[in-house]
Amino acid sequence: MELALTPALTKHLKNPGIFRDLAEGPGPSVAKKRKRLAVFNPSTGELLAEVTDMSAEDARAAIEKAYIAQEPWAHLTARERSNVLWEWHRLILEHSDDLAAILTAEMGKPLAEAKSGVQHAAAYLQWYAEEANRIYGETISAPSNDRRMLVIKQPIGVVGAITPWNFPASMVARKISPALAAGCTVILKPAEQTPLVAGAMIALAKLAGFPDGVINLVYASVGDTIGRELCTNPKVRKISFTGSTEVGRLLMRQCSDQIKRMSFELGGNAPFIVFDDANVDAALDGAIRAKFRNAGQTCVSANRIYVQSWVYAEFTEKFTKRARTLKVGDGFDPDVTIGPLIDRDALTKIEAHVEDALQKGARVRCGGRRVGTSGTFFEPTVITDVVGSMRLAQEETFGPLAPIIRFEDPDHVVSDANDTIYGLAAYFYASNLKRVWRVAEALEYGMVGINTGRMSSEAAPFGGIKQSGIGREGSRHGLEDYLEMKYLCMGGL
Prior knowledge:
- The protein is of the alpha/beta class.
- The protein folds into two domains: about 5-265 and about 470-485, Aldehyde Dehydrogenase, Chain A, domain 1, CATH 3.40.605; about 270-455, Aldehyde Dehydrogenase, Chain A, domain 2 (3-Layer(aba) Sandwich), CATH 3.40.309.
- Helices cover about 40% and strands about 20% of the residues.
- The protein has 17 helices and 23 strands.
- It has helices at about 5-10, 15-20, 55-75, 80-95, 95-105, 110-130, 170-180, 195-210, 225-230, 245-255, 280-290, 310-325, 345-360, 390-395, 410-420, 435-440, 475-480, and strands at about 5, 35-40, 45-50, 140, 150-155, 160, 185-190, 215, 235-240, 260-265, 270-275, 300-310, 365, 370, 375-380, 380-385, 400-405, 420-425, 425-430, 445-450, 465, 470, 485-490.
- Helix 11 links the parallel strand 11 (about 270-275) and strand 12 (about 300-310).
- The longest helix has 21 residues, at about 110-130.
- The N and C termini lie far apart (about 55 Å).
């Protein structure tokens, strides 16, 4: 596949040639000369690159390559697969500055955050390079002496992975490194807004020594056609998807006829609760991190900030003051802490949430408007006098909008926090140990941050309950999601 980088991107790279030369990567090269997918910088509107806009036919060819490569890859020893993952990890770190620059250019986030994202991607590769050697079975005591009973674990097979635009490096690694460690081959479809860092990572994977067909990259401007092919093609045994709950429902329906295995990390509506016995300054730091990281464009972003009445005034005043100090702008500016939103649709959504809140009696304490006439920038925004009927309390905003809600009753706030179809992440701050255990166990979420605003780690299981997903990524549990359990019973002994 062709990859045409423009000076708007290459000016930020130390070694652009390595990504041009290896643009084909280990993926399919069947795409014909036809439509191109243009990738733009959301901060400046500049054209960064053009890639081949692929079709269902190309996805089908990629699946065929992965299917052919599946058995030889699974047949390698765990140590052999581990060694290739280790080498990929080394190359990611070696080229981390360029990967971060690509990420900032196509997604907009501040360069420091992009560098952290690349380091996080490398951490997943390291973790699963180690875990590849720890796929264990078990023996079972047989009911008679003439039999032996045991369990082995084998790779599921070909995996279709669909990654989002908000963490385009770490999500690639988090999805496909456990699949590769388990012995599965992969077709990767990155988000159309941010395909470049995924392409650069797969280029490095080719250098690392992955055999042809083990990792297959499919670029496409229309994800529906690729997703449908991955879900309905019987040679694909599993789908791993991160994105909206609406798209997750669609993919689940498409997979249902084949009872295909699925891992979905879907939408969130994370509550952030500050109780009156909390360390207010610590809660403030955690809330700023959980709300404004990545301009609020994270699935675990604090979407509803509940503050108990005794500390409400202090917290709100300090939070608003901190929000006003955040600098919005181009991610390559070293002083910038909040980059652009991903596109114009994201701007429209956050503006609609602000307008709806104002019409229902909310008060804007700071922000609330676009920044400049170019780019997709929006001010860090704090809104108070929030009630549950407002859209920003019911929907995931995915932007730098912080609604602060006063509460009195500790039991009632947990009920309010759980009153959503989503169950991905929740946060709360408290010091009373009895309260900590009670609230942590009562919150209906797959992940709970207690006195911390950040909890993602390659060593921990990441995922949600209710309509926020199925399965887990990261940790040893993330590897299990790519393995089938087989029971063997040997008789006649």
